[in-house]
Amino acid sequence: MKLKLRIWRQADADAKGRMVAYELDEVSEDASFLEMLDVLNERLISEGEDPVAFDHDCREGICGACSLVIDGQPHGPQAATTTCQLHMRKFRDGDSIDIEPWRAGAFPVIKDLVVDRSAFDRIIQAGGYISAPTGTAPDAHAVPIPKQDADAAFSAAACIGCGACVAACPNGSGMLFMGAKVAHLGLTPQGQPERATRVLGMVAAHDEAGFGGCTNTGECAAACPKEIGLDVIGRLNRDFRKAAARAA
Amino acid sequence: MSIDYYREGEPVADTKAPAGPISERWEKRRFSGRLVNPANRRKLRVIVVGTGLAGASAAATLGELGYRVANYCFQDSARRAHSIAAQGGINAAKNYRNDGDSVHRLFYDTVKGGDFRSRESNVHRLAEVSTEIIDQCVAQGVPFAREYGGLLDNRSFGGAQVSRTFYARGQTGQQLLLGAYQALQRQVAAGTVDLHTRHEMLELVVVDGRARGIVVRDLVTGEITTELADAVVLASGGYGNVFFLSTNAKGCNVTASWRAHRKGAYFANPCYTQIHPTCIPQSGDHQSKLTLMSESLRNDGRVWVPKSKHDERHPADIPEDERDYYLERRYPAFGNLVPRDIASRAAKVVCDEGHGVGPGGLGVYLDFADAIKRLGKKAVEAKYGNLFDMYERITGENPYERPMRIYPAVHYTMGGLWVDYDLSSNIPGLFVTGEANFSDHGANRLGASALMQGLSDGYFVLPNTISDYLADGPFEAVSEDHEDVQAARREVDERIAFFLGNDGDRTVDSFHRELGKIMWEYCGMERTDEGLRKAIGLIRDLKAEFYKRVKVTGKAEELNQQLEKAGRVADFFELGELMCIDALHRTESCGGHFRAESQTDEGEAKRDDDNFSYVAAWEYGEDAPVLHKESLVFEYVKPTQRSYK
């Protein structure tokens, strides 16, 4: 298939970026979206041009590295699918495709389609864990966990930290990401002792990093490749209100 | 054997493993190893390279103990290390099922599964520690699958006859890694771990015979810095990407290990590669990686090919009596659950005979029709839904209605840097954990054992053994001006300058693809004397071509992904040659290394214990590598011809 691409090119964090047009012939419909970009890059290098920089690693939808806004949608048109798992058979011969980086105040562009998502790590550092130093653990069967809680915790823990939720949100909010971690840990008995300090710490780090607040638009959940639901934001808000009231 | 390819040196021995009854050795070593006073730990600096299961768990635990840790990863976040992609599960000898499991049985199965090419002492320790790992992970909030009573669920996995595998849907690696990542981030916040993301180790610094630091490149600014410490831990993963197409993440590379190897660290058993039987077949020349379908699918899926050759009928149109369920036929005791090496080769055999399905005849069916009939679609969906969805996204085919097509692909490397019982390489102060070392899986790794080994090394083994070395520290401060530090730094600068200055016309990827094809053809599922000799010649020629014609665009002082790749591929060339030499010298078949000249009458792998019951530890040599043999002693599990019939 033939494609007309328009790709965001930006030399570095300080440079002014712009959309640049490229045409690509003979793209296989069995290729993944990133493989299509590989083909483009091979050509650009042969022509002596700088290839398009983009983050990617596992290419099987789990590492969370890939991060492209395709025709205005983070991770593109296919629901519950990361960019690396999106295949060209979802497009048609002759299509024009716009490719941009995540756009959010808390995720500054580093180069082309690569952004800095270290703010997510800082949110986790502020409490997104259970303090269980190596070696102190009781037997794994000591505390049974009801299956429905374990399953719900797992569903929240499936977050891959890609940041599509932030890119999709008109406010650039990281609350779906944060809510997923608060829900995951808050649904386990092991997560209870730090439940209040966790949510207070994470929310402070989130706001500090420049993420916006949630106005219930729901774009985050729609963009999430792991189908994390808005209910985790509800949980986050409840936990936060309770903890803040107690801390006051 | 032609002496052109290598020379033989003195034998090497693991001097740290205690003697005595095997079940007491780990306790003995923990007691005999010296400790570091808590007040002194903060004077000791440890570098950890890698943030996968083995790296993040080690960095977090060393931080908790009070050491000053500097941790590096090339990814943009520690959470993205490739351990995250492990699907199936993690083994532990909990015997929660009362099905006859025990530490001794896990030990036995792992030594046998490794085709008697691993160390008994190490494997026993791994089996002992396995139970602590599960406890630790549950305490961290890892959401393992549970039953309605609230207790943990287990499944049988990858050739095991007991249910000892703990799992979190098809995302066990992700959940375990996030547990370790969160423990790591907690230490970052506590100030004990300095974490440097988007940094790549490009050289090891060895001063007065001790590993004292690394040279790293900041992948965003291109700045090169030298980081010095009292000890260096490499947890930098495996080298499957030497094949270009593998199930590894695109960034996985051998550079950290290879630079250490060039500085004197022995590389053990490089030819032991695991080819995983259940991957989605290649669809075309654009292919950049192969995707694994968890082998847990083999618990319920049945593997078959059409009995007639080149049968292009739709699978549904092929009646039962025209299908060959070849694993069930050839291995009635284990059926579809035979270990990975056996399942992979069996698939190659039927495809080579012309029974393969899909593009190029390189595929076999993995069929869930019976499972759906038996358990219902809903139960199958609950177990494997995410895997089925992934298959459909990649192939455009619905596995509920049409059998999956699978084919073997490179997945894991059992070889790696040589380490002793303490996980120390032969360079004092250089420790190696996880897939980057060689020690626990022998010639073939069993399913659900990689996660176990990574976490065993990082949480429980290394933090206990490294103290014996650090007890002699802090070591004399090394200046950045030291001649050896400057030399390491210079090598990095010169390499980068070469790539950017080379007036070439071919991309890095084009060379990498070509190297991968050579490796897959001649050093893949089946190896021959003739093929390996040919491969060595081809690799040498291609390498010369690479240095003449490789083209890298851009500058050094910026995010430059081509430059990153160029350095990694350059190291893959050297590794690939060593893999072929190792495979060539080992004229037996064992585990993942199948030498066509060494097979039984029934076409099964034939080991040669009289001549090859040793670890091949290779020392780097400018002209030719030097082979050091570590002989393997089996006191508890007597080597037998593996049989899964």
UniProtKB/TrEMBL annotation, chain A:
Keywords: Iron, Iron-sulfur, Metal-binding. InterPro entries: 2Fe-2S_ferredoxin-like_sf, 2Fe-2S_ferredoxin-type, 2Fe2S_fd_BS, 4Fe4S_Fe-S-bd, 4Fe4S_Fe_S_CS, Beta-grasp_dom_sf, Helical_ferredxn, SDH/FRD_Iron-Sulfur. SUPFAM superfamilies: 2Fe-2S ferredoxin-like, alpha-helical ferredoxin. One of its GO terms (biological process) is aerobic respiration. Residues 18-103 form the 2Fe-2S ferredoxin-type domain. Pfam families: Fer2_3, Fer4_7. It comes from the Bacteria. The keyword Transcription does not apply. Residues 150-181 form the 4Fe-4S ferredoxin-type domain. GO terms for molecular function: 2 iron, 2 sulfur cluster binding; electron transfer activity; metal ion binding. Its cofactor is [3Fe-4S] cluster; [2Fe-2S] cluster. PROSITE patterns: 2FE2S_FER_1, 2FE2S_FER_2, 4FE4S_FER_1, 4FE4S_FER_2. NCBIfam families: PRK07570.1. Belongs to the succinate dehydrogenase/fumarate reductase iron-sulfur protein family. PANTHER family: SUCCINATE DEHYDROGENASE, SUCCINATE DEHYDROGENASE IRON-SULFUR PROTEIN. This is Succinate dehydrogenase subunit B.
TrEMBL record, chain B:
Its EC number is 1.3.5.1. It is found in: Cell membrane. It is a peripheral membrane protein. Residues 512-644 form the Fumarate reductase/succinate dehydrogenase flavoprotein-like C-terminal domain. Signal peptide: none annotated. It catalyses: a quinone + succinate = fumarate + a quinol. It is an enzyme of class 1 (oxidoreductase). The keyword Flavoprotein applies. This is succinate dehydrogenase. It comes from Glycomyces artemisiae.
